[in-house]
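Why do we care about 3D structure at all? Because function follows from shape, and shape follows, mostly, from sequence. That is the central idea of this module. The next example makes it concrete: a single protein chain, its amino acid sequence, and then its structure expressed as tokens.
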Amino acid sequence: MSASLNNIVSISVEVSNPFAITSDFNLGLIIGKSTAILAKRVKVYTADSYRTQMTTDGFTTDSNEYKAATLYFSQNPKSASVAIGAWDSTGGETPAEAFTACREANGNFYNCCFVDTITDEQISAVAALVEAAEIPTVFWFVTSDENCLAPSKENVLKTLQSAKYKRTFGMYSSEPLIAAAVVGMVSGMNSLAVNSAYTAAYKSLVGVSSEDLSNEQLNALVSYNGNAYTKFGNTYQLTYPMISSGDYHVDDLLLIDVSKYYIQQYIVAGLASVRKIKQTEEGLGNLISFISNACNQIANIGLIAGGIWKGDPVMNLNTGDAIENGYLVQSDSIANQSALDRSERVSPPIYVALLSTGAIEHVVVSVYVNR
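And the structure:
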């Protein structure tokens, strides 16, 4: 295990000639009970050769992992690779312990799911771990409990909603492997390429059947922050609404996690690319330029854009002020540093305000007809 970059740059979310920056936001993890790769715990397979690779490793074509990988790679656009993790259920390992072991074996995956049935209590245990994990992770699970389709019923969605787990998403479905398809969908769209920002709502899934839900059932499901791949009208089969137990949309979490990732990476790359960052206003300006480069990259993806700041004031940024490029970087002055901070070579606090592009997912139209 390597030391965390938090030792150098600590970032909370409310580059001249940088090194190459890569990410694995498009790598999903599928965890199953097969013992084929238990000794390795996690193995990454590519879209081009996963069928041969997995069967060579001992997975059968009837195994949940193999079928889930096929669903994962069937989505459009599709991710280039998938991580398969092993759950040692025969050895008495819990799903939460399996998740922890997989995370220790591979720190690169972002979205994850299980492809074998886990109980509501086990889902809650994994959700708690994901919420507290140092490495940003998103957990998807499946439930077929019909209590999720009726108001004021006890169910796992309601339990997780009460816990406000912002990194856990529940899918109501009779398709036990649908989470693998969803993980494949969002992993494929997490390319971080220019103009690749997206919302996970209103997407089609390949290889799984949609649920036939009434308005009343769908409203009850959404009241618990549950999600479904369901039929709308006579034509559409769409994901909806794709919100976490804690009221976060998929793209909300992506903005938070990508922002931390890029800002941290660009600062570290900048620090490593120069002989010295002076503890002067000029040096502070260098740090701000590294952060601005990261923010420009986030803007190019389409996650932030210019507009009006409606949040609380941040230093000289007031509610109602315009943010031209979707971000504003501010800092305290070097002159105001304490002697202790200066002796420990700590920068003054730097504040980054990001203006999310958000998404329009509901439309109200008034039509007036004159005869």
